[in-house]
Amino acid sequence: MYLPFERLVSMLRRPELCADELDVFLAIVSWVDAQRPDRLPVAARLLRLVRFQLIPADILAREVQAVDWLFNNNECMEPVWQAYKYVLSHVNKTNN
């Protein structure tokens, strides 16, 4: 929560980062919430680093719905919507 933005981005971009995507998402939310007024403007840039499509849709829905500030920012929600589209397209392919 105390890392500067650029250091956090650097850590999240490391190829050797071995973390569950949900944990990455929750860590970003915690980081933003620690100083929300100052950090909210860069939240979308961080959220683009999360591979939301690797998070099961039911868990994604439950965890995302708990973060109220996401719904107030279309740029923050864009990667989440893309993940839902990805999941739905794969569900439809499986059911056909």
* Count of individual helical segments: 6
Give start-end ranges of low-pLDDT stretches.
Answer: none
Total individual domains: 1
Order of helices and strands: HHHHHH
Alpha-carbon distance between the two ends: 45 Å
Main sheet specs: none
Label the structural class: mainly alpha
- CATH fold-level label: Serine Threonine Protein Phosphatase 5, Tetratricopeptide repeat
Radius of gyration: 14 Å
Give the strand content. Answer: under 5%
Helix content: 55-70%
**Which CATH top level class fits?**
Mainly Alpha
- How many strand units? 0
The global form is globular
CATH architecture designation: Alpha Horseshoe
Question: Mean pLDDT across all residues, rounded?
Answer: 89
Explain how this protein is built.
With 96 residues, the chain is mostly helical. The protein has one domain (5-95): Serine Threonine Protein Phosphatase 5, Tetratricopeptide repeat (Alpha Horseshoe). Helix content is 66%, strand content 0%. The mean pLDDT is 89.
Keywords:
96 residues; mainly alpha; Serine Threonine Protein Phosphatase 5, Tetratricopeptide repeat; 6 helices; globular
SSE layout and pairing:
Layout: H1 5-13, H2 21-34, H3 36-39, H4 43-47, H5 57-65, H6 74-95
Structure, briefly:
It is built from six helices and no strands. It has 96 residues and is mostly helical.
